[in-house]
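**Entry details**
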Amino acid sequence: ERGVGALTMAALTRITSYNILAQCYVRSSYFPHSPSACLKWKARSRNLVNELAGLDSDVLALQEVDQYEEFWQPWLAERGYDGVYKCRTQLTKSKRDGCGLFFKRDKFELLARRDIEYNDIAWGRPVGYVHPEGSPEPTEAPVEADGGVNKYIRDCVGVLALLRSKTATDGYVMVASTHLYWDPAHADVKLAQARRLLGEVELFLASNSPIGSVPVVTAGDFNSVPGSEVHSAMLGGFGGRRLRSAYAAAIGAGLVDGADGSDSSVTAGKHGEPEHTNVTPGFTDCIDYVFVDDGVAVRSAMPLPGRDEVAAGLPDATRGSDHLPLTVDL
């Protein structure tokens, strides 16, 4: 059978990672290339749910999820998903979007979760830190010697979930959804967040694994291009367990398949990654990834539209985000 790596779960699992572009960030001045009608929530939400329904993934790792209680939670529940959601922290008075992990309740059950607050780096809190119950959280960010706010206070978050398959004996998987800081001028902040993520995954597995080696899927918007320090750190993995990019593995093995089962392709860019996952006239590159360890076999990846298909930039009349969904069968 086609695949890359050792398959440890009897059931095939489709996972999608998708930054769905929180409506709180949508302004015509940010997306002047997009027709105004495409930016309205009614149109964007219709396109987003059509995309997700068409993919019909077993697990969704979503970023920039806002309007969670009002819109996404009811829609996901109606589609048969349970899950966990972590809203951004608010020390910088940031927007109230967050990261979520959602899974089909007829295929998986949740055994454990861990919320990640990357602000913990600024406080010098250890990996696995849990705020004491009943103790108030700080309302002001720590400051540097020059009086400026600590550079690690960015209100970025992530969430980890340990899932048990309902269809495969001893079928466990740990999935992460995260969104790292965006600013290219602060590559050091992003790298610290990536290292924190890897440390959190390692400790979470050590504390919760029901079997010796639970397969790992770490997905999200890493705001870092292939070959960057963040990309390299993620491939380096944790605790002696290296990771690899599921899309790069699929591209290299010829496992990019169309929705109808026919062979298709995706343009390979730097380091074998997709040429782009985020498309606007001002920035087009690969910054979203699904990283997996050797406990996961990559069976196929869904094709991504070529640059000519999205030349005007995203969102557009059919795609609700400025990012593209990354979908892999594992």
Q: What stands out?
A: The chain is about 20% helix and 25% strand.
